């Protein structure tokens, strides 16, 4: 592949960079401290105006139609400014992409313009349950067939943007007698449907500005037209879309790691001890060199996975490689950056303690690092058969 961004991709990256520096970074600390959702929603509205809520969505549905590489580089820049805003953008793009990938023409024409334009503040991906996290095929949410369509009952957990999403993509068991993972169907459910209750915001270690909630479905009636894709084909859809989501989360992690290292690198050039800037000391130089090398490798892995996806090639292995490497090296970068600041890095008046908290979840959501290694090993073994 050509590692040089196209003119359009470079423009999107530059736009995201300016937006993150001018609009997101100045309010990120306040958003973290206050959890004021009006700040987050204002950020999301501006992202929609920039076309960033449908970066890989066809233009006929209001999307930017820029591709996965553009999405990845934009996500990295947005995450440099605010991880809470970035995860909201990532999940909303993922919701839009699953609708475009398997939705009917009617579903695409109705929902995608609402998401891309920002009329829907966000979209939510309702897959995980308390007893079905790394093993989503074990979900217990049920969708019972009726004369009018389906009735959904169950609870989903850790749902990003649930309290202000316009639409939920919901997975539920439609054939309890089918083999594991074979009797699950995907549904598009309007967030204002009767019977939906969104739980209070979870109290999280990091990414305080983003909304994370339980969503309860109590006899929620949906028509047959709410089925997304084919009946009992939902688990395959989830697996396919999670691979794309991992590019988003890996890109987010990379952005936080780069922001942390950039801050620390600027700091050590100003901070003096023993009569000279501490950047002169080899120990700190090697720490800096190692982390930037790892983050550059993460960037290239993300570009490789994105390129394969854009060209219609299998990319599950590459997406998992990029996600596990980027998230773990970004965590290491935030640790190192905080260490480079010493005691100041531990103080809330500096952004590194927030970045260290925000980045931690990236090796957990969209599939833990351990699950990524299972996927990578499985795909490698298949290549040897």
Automatic annotation (TrEMBL):
<dbReference type="InterPro" id="IPR037069">
    <property type="entry name" value="AcylCoA_DH/ox_N_sf"/>
</dbReference>
<dbReference type="InterPro" id="IPR046373">
    <property type="entry name" value="Acyl-CoA_Oxase/DH_mid-dom_sf"/>
</dbReference>
<dbReference type="InterPro" id="IPR009100">
    <property type="entry name" value="AcylCoA_DH/oxidase_NM_dom_sf"/>
</dbReference>
<dbReference type="Pfam" id="PF00441">
    <property type="entry name" value="Acyl-CoA_dh_1"/>
</dbReference>
<keyword id="KW-0274">FAD</keyword>
<keyword id="KW-0560">Oxidoreductase</keyword>
<dbReference type="GO" id="GO:0050660">
    <property type="term" value="F:flavin adenine dinucleotide binding"/>
</dbReference>
<dbReference type="InterPro" id="IPR013786">
    <property type="entry name" value="AcylCoA_DH/ox_N"/>
</dbReference>
<comment type="similarity">
    <text>Belongs to the acyl-CoA dehydrogenase family.</text>
</comment>
<dbReference type="InterPro" id="IPR009075">
    <property type="entry name" value="AcylCo_DH/oxidase_C"/>
</dbReference>
<keyword id="KW-0285">Flavoprotein</keyword>
<dbReference type="InterPro" id="IPR006089">
    <property type="entry name" value="Acyl-CoA_DH_CS"/>
</dbReference>
<dbReference type="InterPro" id="IPR036250">
    <property type="entry name" value="AcylCo_DH-like_C"/>
</dbReference>
<dbReference type="GO" id="GO:0003995">
    <property type="term" value="F:acyl-CoA dehydrogenase activity"/>
</dbReference>
<dbReference type="Pfam" id="PF02771">
    <property type="entry name" value="Acyl-CoA_dh_N"/>
</dbReference>
<dbReference type="InterPro" id="IPR006091">
    <property type="entry name" value="Acyl-CoA_Oxase/DH_mid-dom"/>
</dbReference>
<dbReference type="Pfam" id="PF02770">
    <property type="entry name" value="Acyl-CoA_dh_M"/>
</dbReference>
<feature type="domain" description="Acyl-CoA dehydrogenase/oxidase N-terminal">
    <location>
        <begin position="6"/>
        <end position="119"/>
    </location>
</feature>
<feature type="domain" description="Acyl-CoA dehydrogenase/oxidase C-terminal">
    <location>
        <begin position="232"/>
        <end position="381"/>
    </location>
</feature>
<protein>
    <recommendedName>
        <fullName>3-sulfinopropanoyl-CoA desulfinase</fullName>
        <ecNumber>1.3.8.10</ecNumber>
        <ecNumber>3.13.1.4</ecNumber>
    </recommendedName>
</protein>
<feature type="domain" description="Acyl-CoA oxidase/dehydrogenase middle">
    <location>
        <begin position="124"/>
        <end position="220"/>
    </location>
</feature>
């Amino acid at each position: 592949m050509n590692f040089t961004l196209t003119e359009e991709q470079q423009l999107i990256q530059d736009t995201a960079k300016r937006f993150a520096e001018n609009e997101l970074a100045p309010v990120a600390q306040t958003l973290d401290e206050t959890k004021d959702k009006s700040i987050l929603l204002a950020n999301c509205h501006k992202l929609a105006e920039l076309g960033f809520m449908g970066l890989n969505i066809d233009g006929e549905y209001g999307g930017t139609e820029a591709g996965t590489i553009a999405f990845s580089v934009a996500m990295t820049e947005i995450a440099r400014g605010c991880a809470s805003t970035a995860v909201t953008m990532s999940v909303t793009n993922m919701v839009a992409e699953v609708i475009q990938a398997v939705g009917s023409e009617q579903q695409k024409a109705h929902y995608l313009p609402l998401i891309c334009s920002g009329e829907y503040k966000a979209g939510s991906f309702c897959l995980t349950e308390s007893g079905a996290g790394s093993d989503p095929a074990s979900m217990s949410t049920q969708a019972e067939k009726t004369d009018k369509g389906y009735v959904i009952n169950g609870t989903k957990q850790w749902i990003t943007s649930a309290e202000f999403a316009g639409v939920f993509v919901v997975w539920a068991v439609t054939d309890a007698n089918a083999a594991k993972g074979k009797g699950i169907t995907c549904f598009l459910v309007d967030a204002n449907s009767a019977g939906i209750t969104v739980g209070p915001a979870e109290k999280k270690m990091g990414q305080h500005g983003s909304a994370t909630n339980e969503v309860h479905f109590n006899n929620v009636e949906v028509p047959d037209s709410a089925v997304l894709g084919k009946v009992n084909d939902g688990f395959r859809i989830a697996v396919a879309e999670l691979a794309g989501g991992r590019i988003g989360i890996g890109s987010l992690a990379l952005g936080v790691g780069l922001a942390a290292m950039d801050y620390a690198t600027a700091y050590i050039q100003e901070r003096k001890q023993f009569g000279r800037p501490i950047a002169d000391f080899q120990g700190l130089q090697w720490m800096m060199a190692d982390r930037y090398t790892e983050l550059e490798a993460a960037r290239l892995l993300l570009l490789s996975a994105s390129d394969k996806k854009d060209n219609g090639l299998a990319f599950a292995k590459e997406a998992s490689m990029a996600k596990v490497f980027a998230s773990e090296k970004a965590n290491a970068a935030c640790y190192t950056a905080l260490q480079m600041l010493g005691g100041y890095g531990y103080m809330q008046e500096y952004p590194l303690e927030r970045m260290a908290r925000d980045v931690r979840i990236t090796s957990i959501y969209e599939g833990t690092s351990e699950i990524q290694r299972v996927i990578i090993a499985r795909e490698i073994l298949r290549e040897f058969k």
